[in-house]
Design brief:
With 164 residues, this protein is an all-alpha fold. The protein has three helices and no strands. It has helices spanning 35-44, 58-89, 107-142. It is elongated, with a radius of gyration of 37 Å. This is Agamous-like MADS-box protein AGL62.
Amino acid sequence: MASMNKAKKPSQGRKKIEIKKIEAGKVFSFGHPSADSVIERYIHGRSYLDPVNNDNNPLFIQFNQNFRELEALKQVELEKAKASSGKQVSDCGNQFWWDESIEDMDLQDLEQFRVSLEGLVKNVDIKAEKMIVENSSSLQFLAVGPSGGQDCFPFADQEEFHHC
């Protein structure tokens, strides 16, 4: 019963808030896009998000030059790593890793060699397919004409074509 006798704290209720001038001179606003970008777009016809042509900007030019130099250094490091790993794999002079003798390999080395050869075959197949697609698409591009390309390739219907 003692708890029922406690008086409730009076609530603040609805109070009037005094309106004061903001000292920064800028009205607080929130929105997306921001009010500034909307006003900028309205006044100048472009937004801050529009791409800017930085081709003549010295900082942009320097940044691109540094980026190209770093990419070139990375490429050189990769080539050095490939060359050194090639020398470590094969100490047999100018032989490639797939030319190594399998007689001296143990089971683990043979398994790794098999996996590497399968990867090589897969890469060769992918490259060959790319070349076939590129060649066929370029032939189709070149074979356009009033006679359906027969005038461009006079030997296209023959099975064998001999160059002189």
